[in-house]
Design goal:
single chain; 372 residues; Serine Threonine Protein Phosphatase 5, Tetratricopeptide repeat; 3 domains; 84% helix; 0% strand; globular; disordered N terminus
């Protein structure tokens, strides 16, 4: 697979956003005066969703806010809850967890009040994602299971698939890889049946990560390529960056460090453009590991420090633990046992809190290997 340079990707994205804006402004000028309030709200939501696809989160949020301001009575609670749910997603993508949680909980209350079980399941999914990112795996599982039960009762295939792929990610994090693949395969089948390309691309990406964790690198590469091709076709810039970044692990496995650096830097430019701080932190972790391979300790250390700082600031304990682990491995390679033990013990404490059994075993083995 050949990836374009980050500059080419950015130009193409900017052109798409500009063309979309121009087209929409023309349509709004021609037809907005004839729209009912209900139609206008739906139009603003639709515009927000489309800008969200391009990664233009600030623009997306502005349209969702317009839609929310137009919801002026209780008869529009369904549209209101949908809008607030979408706003929660934007806050989540920008790592504003508290604001995202408030939005999802507000949407959940509206849905429960109005008997909107589909909206209720969507809110459970969003709340579950927030708890997952913050390492509260039991809570995330509970919300996702609630959502999945509702989605199955309602025959909501798309929502069912989303919840399955999220549960698959949870199983993978906990080292239950066969269960993870079971959830992912179910999700992929459902997404294919309903023609949801974005959902399918995200699921393939998650499958790629699971196979990488299982050291089945050819399978991992296959699913990363499938994910990237779809993400490119639908213009999902964040997912493209995630695929590029996670492929770095494959390049590290074949000792192609410089290819890993190239892909990491491409991904980093996208995450910086999107203000995706956790994507940024993940990239710094990889950059630290890559420079460790080159024994360029002075370059590796600041990347690890920044990765740990951002992961802690934006409340992602799993990423924080992984960065400490890689930092510890760097010091171990330098034969600096004291600092290696410090970072490995930090990683162990977090992994134990997360009940990440496979990681706990690995870190304990590393700590044993550096004892005097």
């Amino acid at each position: 697979m050949i990836f374009k340079s980050v500059e080419e990707d950015e130009r193409e994205i900017q052109q798409k956003v500009k063309y979309f804006e121009q087209s929409i402004e023309d349509l709004k000028n021609r037809f907005s005066s004839n729209l009912s309030n209900f139609q206008e709200i739906n139009m603003e939501i639709w515009l927000g969703q489309n800008f969200e696809k391009f990664g233009a989160w600030e623009k997306a949020l502005s349209y969702y806010e317009k839609a929310l301001n137009l919801c002026d009575d209780d008869s529009q609670d369904t549209l209101k809850s949908m809008t607030i749910l979408n706003m929660g997603h934007i806050h989540m993508m920008r790592n504003n967890w508290d604001e995202a949680l408030v939005s999802y909980q507000e949407s959940l209350k509206l849905c429960q009040r109005n008997g909107d079980q589909t909206g209720e399941a969507k809110a459970y999914n969003g709340i579950g994602i927030i708890y997952f990112e913050q390492g509260a795996f039991a809570e995330s599982s509970g919300y996702w299971e609630k959502g999945l039960e509702l989605a199955e009762q309602l025959n909501e295939s798309k929502l069912n698939a989303k919840l399955c792929t999220n549960l698959g990610a949870l199983m993978s994090t906990q080292g239950n890889w066969e269960k993870a693949l079971g959830y992912h395969n179910k999700a992929a089948t459902l997404f294919e049946q309903i023609g949801d390309h974005r959902g399918l691309a995200e699921t393939y990406h998650n499958m790629g990560m699971t196979y990488a964790d299982m050291d089945r690198l050819p399978d991992s590469n296959t699913y990363y390529e499938k994910s990237f091709d779809i993400a490119k076709g639908i213009g999902d810039v964040r997912l493209q960056a995630l695929v590029k970044l996670n492929r770095v692990e494959l390049y590290m496995a074949i000792n192609d460090t410089y290819a890993g650096l190239a892909f990491s830097n491409q991904a980093l430019q996208t995450f910086l453009q999107l203000s995706d701080h956790l994507g940024e932190a993940e990239t710094y972790k990889f950059l630290g590991a890559l420079y460790t391979r080159l024994k360029k300790w002075d370059l590796a250390s600041p990347y690890f420090d920044q990765s740990i700082f951002l992961a802690n600031k934006y409340k992602n304990p799993l990423l924080e633990a992984e960065a400490h682990l890689e930092y510890g491995l760097m010091h171990k390679q330098k034969d600096d046992k004291e600092f290696a033990a410090t970072h490995l013990n930090e990683a162990l404490t977090i992994f134990e809190n997360l009940k990440a059994e496979n990681d706990i075993v690995r870190v304990k083995e590393l700590l044993s290997s550096i004892k005097p």
